[in-house]
Amino acid sequence: MNLTVIQRFFVANILTVCYSVLVLFKFLLIFLRNPLRNPWQQKLVLVPPARLSDPKYGVHKYVKANNIKLHYVESGDPNKPLMLFLHGFPEFWYSWRHQIVEFNKDYWCIAFDMRGYGDSERPEEVSAYKIDLLVEDVRDLMRKLGRSKCILVSHDWGGMVATKFRDTHPDSLDALIVLSSASREAGSHELWNNPEQKKKSWYMLLYRMPKIPELMFQMNDLQIFDMLMKRRENYVDDNDIECYKYWFRKQDVREMYMLLYRMPKIPELMFQMNDLQIFDTLMRRRENYVDNNDIECYKYWFRKQGALTPPINYYRANFQLTFPDKYKDENVPMIVANGEKDPYIATSTLERMKAEYKYIETVLVEDAYHFLQQESPEKVNKIIRDFLLKNKL
């Protein structure tokens, strides 16, 4: 059933409130079970996990682009073609570690922290995270790097920015690679017309709320990273997850998914519970694709003060009830790869993308979830390599 804009408005806001009430009820149950325990108490980590400074991933640098200080990791020969990596939510440059090592011999690899993430600047205003500004960050970063064209590799939210970049600046691209994502137009169409995608996107409504998403992420020392990333064996270890938690422990980075994420504070509260335990949940879908060290890399950043709100502001700033403008039909080589078992993106999205773009290849990665470049690096690297060879890049 196709909904009118007014109907979408009421549906979105009713669901946002309902999801928020459910999350607040969960918070109440946690309190009643153990009133003396503080699920938002987080581990104090002053020293970054060693993996974040491992020289095999490259050199850490900073640049002012589009009036925002951006942090990036550089690896490879600057005289070779530029391969620029855009991460998703809730990630930062580290999520591309397997691809940096794979491609730095043939390309100049640049993986940067998008605005609001990692060691990049975090504007406070929600409006600072509009997709047009994110696109201009990419364009100006390329200028500052002295390049007019690049191979753009993207994941999740980075994919939405990358497809928008392709629509507005096609002459700046040699090729576009999109993982676990869709264009804004395809995503909006699926959200409002596909029941499967509606179920998978509940979090987007929750993330519209203030504070609640941040609190969700902060629970149990960002345990959500363990939950998100430990879906399959060996794709991250505990050290990797600590790298993520390190950044998101910072105080402003805390919020959860698209509809729920519209709410103030609720997503942040969800993320903060149990020292960001959500990272363990998100990333440990499969045993061993990350280890505890990987997860600590994530938690390291997201524990920092103010580190959760900016990423959730991506959802708050860009949720819309109407479909975006149609793309420009430009001949840019493009491939989209989604996981067969992705819990956030319906497999039908690939068909929608093929209907929207003339020059596109699609791949459904078997037995794969959402964090493709980390959980299935060999498969993803081969997909990218074969695509580039096919297009003589």
Automatic annotation (TrEMBL):
Segments traversing the membrane: 6-32
InterPro entries tied to this protein: AB_hydrolase_1, AB_hydrolase_fold, Epox_hydrolase-like
Family matches, as Pfam families: Abhydrolase_1 (PF00561)
Sorted UniProt keywords: Hydrolase, Membrane, Transmembrane, Transmembrane helix
GO terms of molecular function: epoxide hydrolase activity
Entry annotated with the keyword Transmembrane: yes
Start and end residues of each AB hydrolase-1 domain: 81-376
Domain of life: Eukaryota
Similarity-based family: Belongs to the AB hydrolase superfamily. Epoxide hydrolase family.
Name used for this protein in its record: Epoxide hydrolase 3
Organism placement in taxonomy: Eukaryota, Metazoa, Ecdysozoa, Arthropoda, Hexapoda
